[in-house]
Amino acid sequence: MQAWRVHTTGEPREAMRLEEVPEPVPGEGEVKLRVLAANVNFPDALLVRGQYQIRPPLPFTPGVEVCGLTEDGRRVIANPSLPHGGLAEYVTAPARALLPAPDSLDDAEAAALHIGYQTGWFGLHRRARLQRGETLLVHAAAGGVGSAAVQLGKAAGATVIGVVGGKAKARTAEELGCDLVIDRTTEDVVTRVKEFTGGHGADVAYDPVGGDAYTASAKCAAFEGRIVVVGFAGGTVPAPTLNHALIKNYSVLGLHWGLYATKDPAAILACHTELTRLAADGAIRPLVSERVPLDRAADAVQRVADGTTTGRLVVVPSRDRGAAR
């Protein structure tokens, strides 16, 4: 089979190689899946760079999220077992963690439903307890993680403010349904949030960026506001000033979604059931901006790493080597 492999960590375009390798053999408690679609996530870039908290042995195949086909014909969503990641024609995955792919989504959309939407749902509902009528501030609102939070916020009845960088991303955020879009390259985020909310501020801020995005969230946090920290795609880990949180009476909430797999796996299944319902109702739908052939996967990972994309880039193996829905 074909698979992208990393022999030496570095930038994706240089470090990833498309190779012919043996198909992976499932271990105990695992199943083999034919990859129908593999969603590209920012952690894939971190894995290739050697900067992720998990460091699989070299050589490895990146790709942490797929829609795949079991040997008995079931279409499922899975997190592949590293080092045999999803940017390949076949993967292995834990059998107990397989989730049914929603019938309302095609393969590429289903591949993009899991991590980003689960992170958004747990962040907004389990951690921040977002309420109908509250104001939600979403950073990187046109990206894969941010677009999921925008849709989930709208589905929850919140007023959603999306922060983006550039006119093209602003158009995407508007199409997603943001009630206000702020272009951080030309507008001051704090000023615009306060103007739009009549001085109230954001009840919940969803931050996958870090750095200046976190600083802006703290400055425009409402009384009893909640800042949900889900990542540092901007490259800078902020250092919160706790006296500021005390004076303004807001909370800083961390979210490590992966911990739920070991601490509360039933919650992941319950969340998937809710996401499937929302997808069937049309309230959410992964924003797949490109369906990329397998031989262009390294370029896709690089572009996600560089922050130049909107929505999701999903790798779809070619039909002549394995038909996809």
User: Would you list the SSEs in sequence order as H and E?
Assistant: EHEEHEEEEHHEHEHEHEHEHEHHEHE
Mean pLDDT: 95
Looking at the structure, what is the overall shape? globular
Low-confidence stretches: 321-325
Distance between the termini: 19 Å
SS class: alpha/beta
* Discrete helix count: 12
Total DSSP E strands: 15
Largest sheet: 7 strands, mixed
Q: What Rg, in angstroms, do the CA atoms define?
A: 19 Å
Strand content: 15-25%
**What proportion of the residues is helical, as a percent range?**
25-40%
Short description:
The protein is of the alpha/beta class and 325 residues long.
Task: Lay out the secondary structure.
Elements (H helix, E strand, L loop, with lengths): L1 E5 L5 H4 E5 L9 E10 L2 H8 L16 E4 L5 E4 L11 E5 L4 E2 L6 H5 L2 H14 L7 E5 L4 H12 L3 E6 L2 H10 L3 E4 L5 H8 L5 E6 L4 H8 L1 E9 L12 H7 L2 E4 L5 H4 L1 H16 L7 E6 L3 H10 L5 E5 L9
Parallel strand pairs: 8-9, 8-11, 9-10, 11-12, 12-13, 14-15
Antiparallel strand pairs: 1-2, 3-4, 3-6, 3-15, 4-5, 5-7
Helix pairs in contact: 2-12, 4-5, 4-11
Please characterize this protein's 3D structure.
With 325 residues, the protein is α/β, with parallel strands linked by helices. It is 33% helix and 25% strand. It is built from 12 helices and 15 strands. The protein has helices at 12-15, 42-49, 107-111, 114-127, 144-155, 167-176, 189-196, 212-219, 242-248, 260-263, 265-280, 297-306, and strands spanning 2-6, 16-20, 30-39, 66-69, 75-78, 90-94, 99-100, 135-139, 159-164, 180-183, 202-207, 221-229, 251-254, 288-293, 312-316. The strands form 3 sheets. Strands 3, 4, 5, 6, 7, 14 and 15 form a 7-stranded mixed beta sheet that branches. A 6-stranded parallel beta sheet has the order 10-9-8-11-12-13, sandwiched between helices. Strand 9 (159-164), helix 6 and strand 10 (180-183) form a beta-alpha-beta unit. Helix 2 (42-49) packs across helix 12 (297-306). The model is unreliable at 321-325 (pLDDT under 50).
